[in-house]
Amino acid sequence: MLATRGLTWRIGEVAIVDSVYLDLQPGEFLGVIGPNGAGKTSLFNLITGLRRPTEGKVLLDGADITALPPHRRARLGLGRTFQASSVFGSLTVRENVRLAVQAHRGGSMKLWRRAAADREVAAAADAALDRVGLHHRGTALAGTLAHGEKRKLEIALLLAGEPRVMLLDEPMAGVSAEDVPELVSVIKSLTGDSGRAVLMVEHHMDVILELADRIAVMHHGALLACDTPDTVMANATVQEAYLGEAL
Amino acid sequence: MAAEPILSVEDLSVRIAGLHILQGVSFEVAPTGVTVLLGRNGVGKSTTLRAIVGLTPRNGEARGAVRMGAQSLLARPTHRLVRGGLGYVPEDRCVFAGLTVTENLRLAERRGTTPAYDKVFALFPELDRRGRQRAGSLSGGQQQMLAIGRVLLNDNRLLLVDEPTKGLAPKVVTEVAEVLERVAESVPVLLVEQNLAVVRRLASDAVVLSAGRVAWTGDARELLLETALTKSLLGVGSGEVHA
Amino acid sequence: MTEVKSAEVPAPPATVPDELSPGHARWHGLRPYLPLVALVVAAVLPYSTLNLPGVFEGPLNSPGTLQLLAICLVFGGLAAGYDLLFGRTGMLSFGHALYFAAGVYGTDVLITKAGLPLWQAALLTVVGGTTLAALLGAVALRTVGIAFAMVTLAFAQVGAILVARDFGGLTGGEEGLPLDVSGLPAALVGVTNTVNLYWLALAYLALVVLVVHRVSGSPTGRVLAGLRDDERRIGVLGLDPYRFKLVAFTLAGGLATAGGVVYVLIVGGASPHITSSELTLSLLVMVVLGGPGTRWGPVLGGILYMYLDHRLTAFGSSDAVNNLPAFLSHPLSQPLFVLGTVFILAVYFFPGGLASLRTRLTPLLTTLRPRR
Amino acid sequence: GSPQDTASGGGDAAPVKVGLVYSQSGPLASYGKQYIEGFKAGLDFATKGTGKVGDRKIEVTEADDAGDPAKAVSATKDLIGKGTKIIAGSTSSGVALQVAPIAAQNKVLFISGPAATDAVTGANKYTFRSGRQSWQDVVTAKSFIGDAAGKKVVVFAQDGAFGDANEAAVKAVIGGAGATVSSVRAPASATEFTPFASQIKAAKPDLLFVAWAGTTAGAMWQTLDQQGVLASTTVVTGLDIRASWPTFGAAGSKISFLSHYFDGASDTEAAKAAKAKVAGGTLDLFHPDGFAAAQMVVRAVQEGGDDVDKMIKALEGWEFEGVKGTMKIRAEDHALLQPMYQAKLSGSGTAFTATAQKTLTGDESAPPVAQMKG
Amino acid sequence: MNTVVLLALTGLGLAALYFLVASGLSLVFGLADVLNFAHGLFLGVGAYATWWAAGNLPGAGSDGLGFVVAVAFGVLAGALVAVLVELVLIRPLYSRTIEQVLVTVGLSLAGVALLQATWGADPRPFPRPDWSRDVTAVLGAQVPNAGLLLIVAAVVVLGALLAFLRWTRYGLIIRAGVENREMVTALGIDVRKAFTLVFAIGGAAAALAGALGGVYFGTVSPGQGGSLLIFAFIVVVIGGMGSVVGSAYAAVAVGLLQQFVNYYGTSGLGDLCVVGLLAVVLLLRPQGLAGKVAHA
Ligand SMILES: Nc1ncnc2c1ncn2[C@@H]1O[C@H](COP(=O)(O)OP(=O)(O)OP(=O)(O)O)[C@@H](O)[C@H]1O
Ligand SMILES: Nc1ncnc2c1ncn2[C@@H]1O[C@H](COP(=O)(O)OP(=O)(O)OP(=O)(O)O)[C@@H](O)[C@H]1O
Ligand SMILES: [Mg+2]
Ligand SMILES: [Mg+2]
C-alpha cells in the first residue's frame, strides 16, 4: 500500500534518513522503534511531504507521490499525528475536529454556507471525539488543553480524516497510565478489517508489542531490521542499541 | 516525615483565565530522595510545578504559601528562585530551538559557580558530540537530555522535573531514571512522572492529585504495592505498568 | 465559591470567531437581529436633528456631520475587510492600502480622464482591483510571516511611487486628482446630497460586514481560522493552505477596492497619501484597537480611528485646549499627538480591543443586575 | 425632520459667515500660521478695524485640514452646510484642487490661499486665488537671464505635479523665448543628491532653475554647492519662508532668488498695516496671501451681499492695493496678477537678510490666460 | 571614471546612513522581536538632543570636542528615551506582537508630534563642524566629508555590535529570550534586563544615526526619522532580521543601487529598483540574505 524506495534525506553530509525501503500492506500495523534521534520523525516528514527527500521515492498504491505537496498526499489518504501536539489552539476542541472532518469530506471552499449548519460534519466530528473520550471538552479552546488531552485530540483529528494510511508519531507520549489502555484500543480499532494500514512510532514497548504485526527498527537513519515482534525483540543489536536493560 | 521538609506547599490555589485549576493543594517535599507527583492528565501537576517556580501565566494568579526553608517563594521572581538553587525542567523541554546545544548549555551557567560540564557530558555524551547542532533539530529524546543536562550544570537545592521520560526510548528512560536516581542522592527532587516503572524505581514519597486537589500523600512504595489504592487513585493496577 | 471547575468554558471573544462558538442561550433569540437593528438605526440617523455639542460640529443631519460619518463608515468597512486577512486568517499584510488606493484612483481616473459613466468605472475598478489582488497575492503568498508583510509592503510601495511619479499626468502626483463630477448622477453631487453619500457608505459597510461574517462562519472561514493557528497542520489535513490564503487575500483586496470606489465619491477626489504604507498601518491599528477576529471590533475600531483622526484637528484648535498652559496646549493642539496617545492608552486599558469591553463589563453588569 | 438639513444664508443684518480651511497642524502648519495672521491683518485693514462690512459683521470660522484633502473636503462641506457662502484657505495645492470643485458644485465663493498650483487658475468661475502661482515664479526666473535666445536652461525639480508644472512653465516661458530647456528630475523622497548634481554639471547650463520644496532642501543645496554647480552657473530658485533661510547655509549667497514675498520687499500702506498687526512685526512669504484673501472677502461682501454671482462679478477685474503693491484679478481666468521680486540673500549662521534686486510688475509676471473650465 | 568613484563613495555614505538606522532597528526587531515603528522617534530625539546640546549645553558646541560632546549627549538621550520606552511601554507587552505595533505606532505619531509642538515643523540648521561641509578629493571626485564621516561611524558601529553579540553573554541571552522568555528566567537569568539593554543599544544607534544624519542633511526636522525609516526597514528585511552583518550588506546594496540607478536611469527608478530588490530577495530567500533557514 505504502512503500518507500531508498528514501534518503541528507543535511550536508549527514544522512538523517538513510536509504530506507519499507513496505506497508493493507491492514498491516507496523511499529517503528529506534533510539532517540534515529530519524523516525524525519521519516514521517518525508512520507507526508513536509520535507523533500534528497533521494528515493515514496509510493502510495504503487503511484509515485514523492513530488506531491502534503495536502495532495493527505487527500490520497495519508494521515498523521505529530510528536509535539499540533492542534488549532484558538479553536474549540469541537471546531478542531469539525475542520478535520470537513477537510476530508470536501466542500471547504464554500464561502457562503453556514459551517455550523452541516449536521453531517458535526455528527462525524462528535463521533471522533467520542472515540477518544474528549466529548466533555468539546467547547474548551484546544490551546488550553492539558498535554494528554491534546494527544487525544491529535488522534481525533486523524480519525476525522478517515485516512487509509495512518502515521502515528508517539501517540502515547505523556498520556496518563489510566488512559493508555483506552487509547490503545482506539488505535487498535483503527486497522481492524477495514484494510487500513498504520505506521506507528512509539517508545512504549508494551504498546508496540500489543499492536504491531511487524516492527521496524531504525538506527542512525537506516533500517536495522523489519520483522515480526519476536524476531526483533530477540535481535541482539536491538537489545543493545535500543532497549537496554528493562527497568 | 521526620526531617524538616525542603519545600512545603500550603493551600496553593491557582486560577487561570477564570478557571480554578488548583484548589488548595498542600504537601511537603522531603529533604532527601524523590517525591513524586502523580495524577491523571489535566489534574494540575504541571500547574503545581509552574506555580512553585513562579511561572503562573499572566492571566492567572497563584495564592497560598510555598516555602523553601524559611523563605517564602510565591512573590519572588523566577530568576531569583532559580539562582537560589531551584532547578526546573519543564514539561515541553523548552530548549532554545534557534541556539546550538553548546549555547543552550552556556546559557544555563550561573554566575559565581563552576558549571559541571564533565558531569553532564558523562551522563549524556550525545550532548558533547552534537555541540554545534541547533537544538531545534535535535530529536525529541535528545532535546529532553539537553533540558535535563542544562539544569544539572549547577548545584541545586531542589529540582522540579516535569515528565522527564516522556517520549524517550526505553533505554534512555532507564538511563534518565538512573541519572535522576544518582542526582537524588545529593539533591531532593520533586518529580512528575507517568511511567510507573520509573516511579517505582525512584520515588520515596508520593503525592497524588485529583481534579486540582490532593487525593493522597504518603509513602510511594505503599501506594504502588496496594493494588486497590493504585487502582482507585491512578486508575491502573500496579501490574499493568508499561516498561 | 469552591465549585469544581466546569468543563464548559465560555470562550474569550478575542480568539474565537463568534460564529463558531455557542453563545448564551438567552441571547440566541435576539442576537441575529441586533445587527439589523443597528443597521436600521444607522439608516434613519439622518432624519434626526439631534445636536451633540462637542461630538459633532452640527446636528446629526447636517452635511458636515454626515460627511464625517460617511468617511468613518467606509473605514469601518475597510477595517472589517482587512480583519478578514489579519484577524481571521493571521496574514499580516502591510500592503492593503494598495487595493483601496486602486479603488480610489481607478474610479477617479476612469471617470475624470476616460470619461466613463460611474457604474462602468466602478465595475471595472472593482474587477481590476480584485484581479490585482489575486495576481500580487499569488506572488506574495509564496512567502510567510514577516517576509510576506514586507513583500506586500513592497508592492504597495511601488503603487505609491507610481502615483507620485504621475505618469502621463494620470494621477496628479502629490496634488492629487479631483473627481470630475459632471458625469455623475446628480444625487451624489453637492453638499445637499451628502446624505446619499452617507447611505452609500452605510451600504458598503453593511456589505463588508455581511461578507466577512458569512465567510468566517462558512466552511472556508473555519479553514482560515485553522490557518491562523497552524498552517502545516492544515496541509496535513489535506487542504492547500496557499489556495485558501489566496482566496482570503483576493476577497479582502476586492472589498478594499470597493471601499475605494465609495470613498472617492464621498471625498470627491484622490490624493496620494492614501497610497502610503501609513494607511495600511492605520488599518492595522484600527483592527487592533477594535479587537482582531471579533464580530464588531474592527468596524468600531475603524470608525473610532477615523472619527478621532478628523475630529482631533478641531479639538486641537478649540478654546478648551488653547486656554491651557503652553506645555499642555502645544502638544494637545497636535492631533497626531493625541491620536498616538490614545492608541497607547487603549492597549493598556482595553487589551483585546474595544470588543473586549463587553466581556470586561459583563461581571460588572452581573453584579449590578438584581438577583432573581 | 428631513434626511438632511442645510442652513440657508441669513437676512441683511445677519453676520456674514466666512470659512477658512487651512493647515493649522501638519507639515504646512507654518505656512498656515502666516496665512491666518495675514488674513486677520487684512480683515482689520479692509474693514478699518471694525470687522464689519456695512452693518454686517464678518464671522470667521477656522477649520484645520492638517494638509489632508479629505479633511478639507469634510470641513468645507460642513461649513457650506451651515450656510457659509465664502470659503478661503487651502495651504496646499492638493487641498485647493479638491475644494475648488466642491465650491462650484455648491455655488459658493472659494478663494484659494498659498497653494501655488497653476491648475487653480481657471478651475471654475467660483474659484479665485489670493496668492501667486508657479508660472509667475518662472517668469520671474526668466528675468535673470536677459535675452534667452540660444541659452541652455536646466530645470531641476521633484517628481510629481509640482515638478511637472514648473518644468512645463519653464519650457513655455524661457524655452518659448528661444532657450533650450532640459530637465533633471529627482524623487521627492531622495536623500542623496550627488547623482543629480553630476547630471546637472554635465549638462553645463547657462541657467539652472531649481523647484524643490521639503525638508531635504538643505542637503540638496549643500550637494549642489559641494559639486561646484552653484559656482559654475546662474542658479535660480524660489525663496521660501524665513525660517528656511539658514538651511541654505553657505550656498545662500550663491543663489539668485525669485521671491513671492519677504519682509521689506515692499513698502505699501497695506504692508505697513500688516507689519503692525503681525506677531514679531516681521512679514513673511504667505502673509500677503492671507491679507489679500481678506481684502477680497470684504470686497465680495460689500458688492455682492449674499449673492455669490454678484460677488464673482465684483471680484473679476478688480484691482486693489495689497501688501505687495497693485494686484489685479484677471477677469478671464481669475489669475491674480501681482508684483514679483528678484532677491539676494546675505548673512551667515542664523542671521540672514534678503534684499530686493528688482521688482516685476503684475503685468510683467502675468501668466498666460487659462481656459475657464466650469 | 571620477563619476563612478563619486557615485560609489556617496552611495556608500548613503548606505552607511541606512545601516546606522537599520542596525538599531534590526537589533530590536530581530532580537527583542519588537517591530519598532517608533525607531524614527529615537532618531529624532538623537538629532534634536544634539542640536539642543550644541546650543545650550556647556562644553558642547558645533565644532571640535564640543561637537563630540553634543553628539554624545544626543546618543545618551536616545538611549535614555529608548530605555524609558522599553520599561514603561514595551515591557508589559512582550510576546504580544500586535499590541506592540499599536503602541509603537502610537508612540511614533505622538513623539513626532511632540517634537513638532516643541520645535516647530520647519527644518532647523544643524550645528556641525565646518570640515563636514567640505569635500575631499578622491581620485578626482569631490566626496562630501559628511558622507565619509558616516562611513567611518557605520564601520565602528558594526564592529562594536558584532563584538557585543559575539563575545558577551548578553547576545546569547537575548537570542534565547526571543524564543522563550519564560524558560530563560527558569534558568536563573533576569531576561528583562537584557531586553532593556537591547533597547538602549537600539536607541543609541538610532540617535547616532539621527545626529550624523543631521550633519549629513545640514538640517533637522521632526519627520526626518520617518522618511529614512522605510528604507531602513527594507534594509533590515533584505539583510535578514536580527543579522547585523546582513543589514550591513543590504545597506551597501541598497545605497549603491539607488545611487547608480538614479544617475544612469530615470528619476524614481532607484526607489523602484530597491523595492524590486526587496521583493526578489524575499521571494527567493524568505529569510533574507543572512538569515538562517526556518525550522519546522
Ligand atoms: N533540520 C534538521 N537539521 C539538522 N538535523 C536535524 C534536522 N532535523 C532532524 N535532525 C536530526 O536528525 C536526527 C533524527 O531526528 P528525528 O526527529 O527524526 O528523530 P526521532 O527518531 O524521531 O527521535 P525521537 O524518538 O527522539 O523523537 C536527529 O539526530 C536530529 O538531530
Ligand atoms: N494557560 C492555561 N489556560 C487555561 N487553562 C489551562 C492553562 N494551563 C493549564 N490549563 C488547564 O489546567 C488543567 C491542568 O493542567 P496541567 O498542565 O497542570 O495538567 P497536568 O496534570 O500536568 O496534565 P498532563 O499529565 O497532561 O501533563 C488542564 O485542564 C488545563 O486545560
Ligand atoms: Mg521523533
Ligand atoms: Mg503536565
From TrEMBL, chain A:
CDD domains recorded: ABC_Mj1267_LivG_branched
Keywords annotated in UniProt: ATP-binding, Nucleotide-binding, Transport
All residue ranges annotated as the ABC transporter domain in the record: 2-245
Family matches, as InterPro entries: AAA+_ATPase (IPR003593), ABC_AA/LPS_Transport (IPR051120), ABC_transporter-like_ATP-bd (IPR003439), ABC_transporter-like_CS (IPR017871), BCA_ABC_TP_C (IPR032823), P-loop_NTPase (IPR027417)
SMART domains on file: AAA (SM00382)
Keyword match NAD: no
PROSITE patterns, alphabetized: ABC_TRANSPORTER_1, ABC_TRANSPORTER_2
Domain of life, source organism: Bacteria
SUPFAM superfamilies for this protein: P-loop containing nucleoside triphosphate hydrolases (SSF52540)
Molecular function terms from GO: ATP binding
UniProt key word Transcription: no
Pfam families: ABC_tran (PF00005), BCA_ABC_TP_C (PF12399)
Name of the protein described by the UniProt record: ABC transporter ATP-binding protein
UniProtKB/TrEMBL annotation, chain B:
Protein name: ABC transporter ATP-binding protein
GO molecular function: ATP binding
Keyword line: Amino-acid transport, ATP-binding, Nucleotide-binding, Transport
Domain of life: Bacteria
InterPro entries in the record: AAA+_ATPase (IPR003593), ABC_transporter-like_ATP-bd (IPR003439), ABC_transporter-like_CS (IPR017871), BCAA_Transport_ATP-bd_LivF (IPR052156), P-loop_NTPase (IPR027417)
Residue ranges constituting the ABC transporter domain according to the UniProt record: 7-236
Recorded family membership: Belongs to the ABC transporter superfamily.
Pfam families per UniProt: ABC_tran
Organism: Micromonospora maritima
TrEMBL record, chain C:
KW GTP-binding (keyword) present: no
Record keywords: Cell membrane, Membrane, Transmembrane, Transmembrane helix
Transmembrane segments: 33-52, 64-85, 97-116, 122-141, 146-164, 184-212, 246-271, 336-357
UniProt superkingdom: Bacteria
Bilayer topology: Multi-pass membrane protein
Places the protein is found: Cell membrane
Region (Disordered): 1-20
Alphabetized Pfam families for the sequence: BPD_transp_2
Main location: membrane
Name the UniProt record assigns to this protein: Branched-chain amino acid ABC transporter permease
Organism: Micromonospora maritima
Automatic annotation (TrEMBL), chain E:
Protein's membrane topology: Multi-pass membrane protein
Transmembrane segments: 6-27, 34-53, 65-89, 101-121, 141-165, 194-217, 229-256, 263-284
Keywords tagged on the record: Amino-acid transport, Cell membrane, Membrane, Transmembrane, Transmembrane helix, Transport
Superkingdom classification of source: Bacteria
Subcellular location(s) of the protein: Cell membrane
Pfam family, one: BPD_transp_2
Keyword Transport annotated: yes
Entry similarity comment: Belongs to the binding-protein-dependent transport system permease family. LivHM subfamily.
Protein name in the entry: Branched-chain amino acid ABC transporter permease
